[in-house]
Structure prediction request, 949 residues.
Amino acid sequence: MKRIAAFILLLPLLVVLPAQTAQAAVQRVQFTAGGNYLVVEFLDDDLVHFEMGVGSGPGTGSPVFTTTQIAKTNYPGPTSLTQAGGVLTTPGIKVDVNQTTLCATVYDTTRTPQLLLNTTCPRNLSQAWKGLSFTKSSMQNAYGLGEQFFVGGSADGDWVGRQRTPGGNYGNAMVYDTDNGPVGNAQIPVLFAVGANNANYGLFVDQVYKQQWDLTGDPWTMDTWGDQLRWYVMSGPDLPDLRKDYLELTGRPPVPPKKAFGLWMSEYGYDNWNEIDTTLAGLRANKFPTDGVMLDVNWFGGVTAGSDNTRMGTLEWDPVNFPNAATKLAAYQNTNGVGVMTIEESYVGKNLPEHSSLASAGYLIRAGCSTCSPAYLTGNDWWGRGGMIDWTQPAASTYWHNTQRQPLVNDGVVGHWLDLGEPEMYDANDWTAGLLAGKHAHADYHNLYNLEWARGIAKGYADNGNQQRPFMLARSAAGGMQRTGAAMWSGDIGSKLTALASQQNVQMQMSMSGIDYFGSDIGGFRREMLNSDLNELYTQWFANSAWFDVPIRPHTENLCNCAETSPDSIGDVPSNLANLRQRYELTPYYYSLAHKAYTTGDPLMPPLVYQYQNDPNVREIGHEKLIGKDLLVGVVAGANQRQRDVYLPAGTWYDYYTNSKTVSTGQTLTNVPLWRNGKFQLPAYARAGAIIPKMTVDDQTMNVLGKRADGTTRNELVARVYADSTASSFTLAEDDGTTVGYQAGSKRTTDLTQQLSGSTATVGIAASSGTYTGAPSARSNVVELVADTQASAVTLNGSALTQYANKAAFDAATSGWYNAGGNLVVAKSASLSVGSAKTFAFTLGQAVVSKTFSCANGTTTSGQSVYVVGSAPQLGAWSVASAVKLSPTAYPTWTGTISNLPPSTTVEWKCIKRQEANYPATADQWGPDPNISFTTPATGSGGTTNGGF
Prediction:
């Protein structure tokens, strides 16, 4: 069959041929016309690879070339391929080649009728600057294309109507604008196009050179350098399928160390161990969980601007300010529960011994030819002057890792901060060993430089047999960066609310470019750009990052030692603490999503369009994001923000903080408060049927691994469950959090299920599968059930659990349950074997607790109303902004009934007068002392409680 197929594929293709079929192998067809050629390579039923260029073409005997952006090259080929002249058809995709123009029209053949995806035609193929055009066809929106910031301070917008421009002369660069400051522009050339009724396709341009995309008209265009043009087209039923296909092609992200999901303190820069100790002591004293510290250039002795004698490039500890590193790192890990990540750059000061050894081995980039001396970099010499490592040489990566980086790993360093990797400084006339055959110029490697750097680190870990996971933080990228174990951050971003908003638009595109782990310098690196209240900006930024960034990393330029970055010292500290603890509580959910990203390619924090692509209202939304598929969170980035509107796609949603239910047909909730019970928190909603695993977080929590200040262990399995009549499930994934053992099966999975049937909600915790070093053999199980009513009974595996009157009694018991108020019922088991299944059954239907509040003598002015505020969360926890408005039922007496109060609980409250608009934090008038007090009943109405002025 292979010989027959080859014969068919090499026939003169300007003649229409009888239908021919080839099966079960990668198939290639070459077309030539007008001195140009097109090779069409079918990798599977819905993935096709193209190469176009000038000349007679390479033929069909060898695979189409791929760059190192590509991870998978062993595709099985389509299950069948039918050729009739220029029409090539698999069970999933059809390519119709115009044999005169070499334009290729691609269809999704799984649709009825077949769906036209686009027609791709060459542009200026005989010129150095050449490209492709793509008809818009039925596509309406487009996502991906990596990292580019826009001015205007908006989190919203897809690529249609925009141009994707290179950051610099060669592509990747850090670029400056007045809204965002110096921020990254990283080329990841994957595009996902979306139309109505699940019309969609994916496109990846596998080019090294800079690219310019223009999606302002029809057709869309892409221009680049290069002798050939190579691209992939993928079809599929929806965006999740397409993104998974892209990650199969370029590589799925490994699971980061668990500590990567926590708080990492950073600044430019910590001068010595004592400064770090002071920072950590403040965080611990204020009960902030913390997982790590990142060290800028000070750790190796700093840099000397304009000098050959700079320390830039050494990876050895400054013995004066950072002595006895291995001992110190062990103490940080064992006593404080924190890890350390060290910065490194690819530049090496000319007078360092490392420069001499690299030059002798031929591992530095050269000044223009294969026998030239190392390039001597003198421009933008804030770091000093010297050479640049040639990461295009695998041997250079191996040498540097083994001699310089591995000793740091041996010392206890847990991660590597890869700075300036665009590369920022370079000799435009340099020479490298290269990534393309016969190509050695700067343009031939520039956009893959950071990718090769990260690939070398990942390989160094593997070659040295390190069980520790490679963890990196990089400033630039290319396609495939995600498979190296690198997270990314957005550069030296300005301390402006416009930058915070734009960061969220970039995060949307980075998620659709395969980058799950992306973040920013919380509070902004360039504080000199600040044009609003710093505390407000930091509070908002920290709240956003606590939901969307991995890792959570405050960072700023602080050479003056005058700028605060720690969340216990800047911004609204109670809000910072609440947002950080909430993130730590959700660690098991995020970490399970990370395992799913590794095994299936599902994203951690996708835009709404990823799950709701047929809802036209979400197509350009970047100001709301999903965490997995079950949580929806709204971005906040603006001065004096105390409320915002939230769009909820069709379905049933629960407010994450109050558990109030909204059945949405695709509608907007207006004026959702941002200050809740005295703390600033982003609006968040859980989808009905969501199962969210959590961890216990309190004053004793030190890090995400569960280290506690009091030495106790809290390893219970906690699941927040949002009851729904449609059965749903979630798989909790756990491992040791630090090693690569999970890749060989050293992990545990536990399936969690729920279903509401009539008045019974059933929550299942299946017997766990698998294990890992340190895994508990038994644990308590806690179910937090969100439902519309209280429960009257709860059973575990058919046996009744004891009901307790309130939280205090419940907490003191080993097992049991209680009605918590706020649409929440909480049940727990004693410690049980993880190898046994547990079924919690909740009998619902009991009336929630309510109370009618009456405030007399409530005379008000225009824009003012009477509210009730009190000790219960449902009464605002004494926060004026969260007080509950009453109605002037018999003015000046105001009344209102408040439901979902905690049962059997003493509540204190007062009447207040408050402005109605914008949830103010202060009251115009308080009712007289003392506070009014009552005890709620176990169920139903507690009657009326009276107050006044």
Observations:
- Residues 18 and 84 are 6 Å apart (CA to CA).
